[in-house]
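Field log, afternoon session.

UNIT: design team B
ACTIVITY: writing a sequence onto a fixed backbone
BACKBONE:
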């Protein structure tokens, strides 16, 4: 469920052309590992800061 919500956030950020880091997303994106949740957080973080 959380991974799906982050996936929606990635799409919404792209649609809105959102920019700027979100500390909570950056924290999850920095975690080691390759779970779907962490991978999607990395995608969102990159979308917002890249």
């Amino acid at each position: 469920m959380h991974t799906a919500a982050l996936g929606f956030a990635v799409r919404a950020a792209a649609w809105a052309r959102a920019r700027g880091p979100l500390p909570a997303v950056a924290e999850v994106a920095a975690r080691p590992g390759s779970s779907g949740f962490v991978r999607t957080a990395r995608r969102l973080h990159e979308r917002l800061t890249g």
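LOG NOTE: The CA atoms of residues 32 and 38 lie 8 Å apart.
NEXT ACTIVITY: expression trials, pending approval
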